[in-house]
């Protein structure tokens, strides 16, 4: 089933060229089946790239998806035009009285800062608190996962000596419905300067779904299945790490060549070995949300209260 997008949304034409169908608003309103409503809190600098990456993944569901985009007004967005933000993004004040089937909180390039020193931290805390009552499920990505683990579970960041950067194997620790169809060992992109203090994980609150002996836990899920914490970047394009590496080189950073990524000395050939798992994860998530969420969105707070 298609995603409903405004007719002039920039990502729409790109997705249509990839045979990802985005339905027009007028036609969508004539359908009787209730679409899933998702909210995307996009903290990445290049918001359009991230929009395309995530819309590409959620488009594979047979369900119609309505997506709202959320901005934090306490932060000045320097890499996205104000016109794009004002036209397509909502503030928290505009959505705080609404409910959503799912929320995605992206990463952000602020890992080296203490959480409380991030200029939009208090506003993000408001959103994360609101998400516990007004959404059926939340996916947190990279720094967004670290922020969620810190705020909800008191798990601190651990600073690395060098950027964790490349494609890493991860092994499933437990069987979980969101990872149906996954291989026991699967690959996925990592790009971060920090990890988490695993000694602070309380088993009654969190489960480590996937981990690697070298880099530690990579995927965690709350005991009530409401919050999914992805420390990596399943949404990355084939060339995302390459572009990031070249950008770091231009900035004079000492970022090493991403591990398990380039297949040639010229740094030109890359084989995507995570795309299938990325689509499978988001497909499983949307299917799971569809089965758990109430038909009437206003009933989500009551459902969450019963789960507490």
Automatic annotation (TrEMBL):
Catalytic site positions: 142 (acyl-thioester intermediate), 233 (proton acceptor), 235
Pathway: Amino-acid biosynthesis; L-methionine biosynthesis via de novo pathway; O-acetyl-L-homoserine from L-homoserine: step 1/1
Residues at the site labelled Important for substrate specificity: 191
Signal peptide: none
Keyword line: Acyltransferase, Amino-acid biosynthesis, Cytoplasm, Methionine biosynthesis, Transferase
Keyword presence, Transferase: yes
Catalysed reaction equations from the record: L-homoserine + acetyl-CoA = O-acetyl-L-homoserine + CoA
Enzyme Commission identifier(s): 2.3.1.31
Main location: cytoplasm
Protein name: Homoserine O-acetyltransferase
């Amino acid at each position: 089933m298609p995603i409903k997008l405004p007719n002039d949304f920039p990502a729409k034409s790109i997705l249509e060229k990839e045979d990802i169908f985005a339905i027009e608003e007028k036609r969508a309103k004539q359908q009787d089946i209730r679409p899933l409503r998702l909210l995307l809190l996009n903290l990445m600098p290049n918001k359009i790239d991230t929009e395309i990456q995530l819309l590409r993944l959620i488009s594979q569901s047979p369900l119609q998806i309505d997506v709202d985009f959320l901005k934090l007004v306490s932060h000045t967005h320097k890499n996205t035009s104000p016109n794009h933000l004002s036209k397509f993004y909502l503030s928290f004040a505009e959505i705080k009285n609404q409910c959503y089937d799912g929320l995605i909180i992206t990463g952000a390039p602020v890992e080296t800062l203490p959480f409380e020193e991030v200029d939009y931290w208090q506003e993000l805390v408001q959103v994360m608190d609101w998400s516990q009552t007004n959404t059926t499920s939340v996916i947190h990505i990279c720094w967004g996962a670290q922020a969620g683990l810190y705020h909800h579970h008191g798990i601190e960041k651990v600073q690395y000596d060098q950027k964790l950067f490349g494609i890493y194997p991860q092994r499933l620790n437990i069987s979980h419905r969101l990872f149906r169809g996954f291989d026991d060992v699967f690959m996925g992109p990592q790009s971060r300067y920090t990890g988490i203090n695993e000694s602070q994980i309380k088993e009654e609150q969190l489960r480590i779904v996937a981990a690697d002996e070298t880099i530690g836990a990579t995927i965690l899920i709350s005991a009530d299945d409401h919050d999914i914490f992805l420390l990596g970047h399943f949404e990355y394009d084939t060339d995302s790490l390459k572009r990031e590496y070249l950008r770091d080189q231009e900035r004079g950073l000492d970022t090493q060549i991403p591990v398990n990524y380039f297949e040639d000395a010229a740094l030109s050939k890359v084989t995507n070995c995570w795309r299938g798992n990325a689509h499978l994860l988001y497909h499983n998530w949307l299917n799971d949300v569809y089965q758990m969420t109430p038909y009437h969105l206003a009933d989500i707070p009551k459902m969450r209260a019963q789960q507490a």
